[in-house]
Amino acid sequence: MLGTDTPTMILPNRRLKLDTLVRLRWLAVAGQSVTLLVVHLGLGYPFPVGLAFALVALSAWLNIFLKIHAPSTLRISESAATWQLSYDILQMSGLLFLTGGLGNPFAFLLLAPVMVSATALSARKTAVLGFLACVCASFLAMWHLPLPWPSDLDFKLPPVYSVGVWIALVSSLGFMAAYAFRVAEEARQLADALAATELVLAREQHLNALDGLATAAAHELGTPLATIYLAAKELGDEFQPDDARAEDVALIRSQAERCRQILKQLTSLSSDQDRTYQRMPMTQLIEEVIAPHRGFGVEISVKAAGQGPEPIGSRNAAIRYGLGNLVENAIDFARTAVEVQAVWDDTSVALTITDDGPGFSPDVLAKIGDPYVSERGAKSGRKDSGGGLGLGFFIAKTLLERTGAKIFLQNQSPPARGAQIRVSWPRDVIETASKIDERRVSAHIDHV
């Protein structure tokens, strides 16, 4: 049937923690301070000690500033991490400039910030930092103050040796950065695959448990709903058509019938008969989904357009139930209107559900689709709508993903208001009945 545009699973962000960079910089400050003290006080070698300690103090003040103005658990963006690591390269280059350039045995510490980037940042950011380190190394190879040495001796490196040190530094930088990045990337990919697998298995296990509960609920609720329906039908015959009570009884009867239909869907989500017979075009599917939700004070408009003939898929209860739940959620939070728009082309089919309600709260937007997470962070103003536990949305999302759909959720761009849910499928999945109910964990992982 129609495929959904399920949002690919969002894995935990792998950005660096600010505290990690701060701790590494404190380690550098301590090491630099001890080295300068040993060279100045222990060995008595002359060098611009005031400027050198000023550079060390600058790193210390930067750490203090970051600790005061940002929490330790903050994960910074790649750009912010790149700027901080760039500062570390420049600060080390400044110390090397004051203490002999590439002739200083600590010159290879220029590699450290690039190694940190290779293990935590993208290849592009690592290349930028590597280029900066190469520029600094080239500058230090030609311009620097004398290496700290006993004042009665004049220590100078032969030009050939200086060139050799520069080549060794640049070569080590390129090789070690590439090696560290490759190893770290493989570890990240493995961690992502394991996390994705665990997430999918957990969601499937939870849904399977809910499947059993749904079947039991359908069985237990079937008898009392039938009783309510029959009682409402008999009461309806006792009132005149113009009696106000007749309208209330008719409403009770229609809602009881709707409950019976919902329970019937829950017990037939995997029915062979349901997915084998009765093919329907997309517009008919949309009408079937939204029909039970009309007449609740919210205007529902439908738009359908696309390239080529309208997609025709097999009737599938999982898709009808999933889309119906999304539409019902939009109606619950809409102020006045909900729009359902279908578009298609030769390769894909997409369905967009938009409401004019308060939209998704930013703090729960990334968690929507997990069980026991409220779907909206703001109240809609309707007494009968609340945040809920998110189970309905979780079930709808998982059922739609099982059909090969992807789901994307977002708030409309200002000045528009409200939430927008986009469900998309590959067109061949919708039009090929045999692909609708495939359930493959690998298919979910491929989307990660």
Automatic annotation (TrEMBL):
It holds the Pfam family HisKA. The chain crosses the membrane at residues 24-43, 49-68, 105-121, 128-147, 159-181. It is an enzyme of class 2 (transferase). It catalyses: ATP + protein L-histidine = ADP + protein N-phospho-L-histidine. Its main location: membrane. GO terms for molecular function: ATP binding; phosphorelay sensor kinase activity. Residues 216-429 form the Histidine kinase domain. The keyword Phosphoprotein applies. GO terms for cellular component: plasma membrane. Keywords: ATP-binding, Cell membrane, Kinase, Membrane, Nucleotide-binding, Phosphoprotein, Transferase, Transmembrane, Transmembrane helix. It comes from the Bacteria. Its EC number is 2.7.13.3. It is found in: Cell membrane. The keyword Transport does not apply. This is histidine kinase. Coiled coil: none annotated. It is a multi-pass membrane protein. SMART domains: HATPase_c, HisKA.
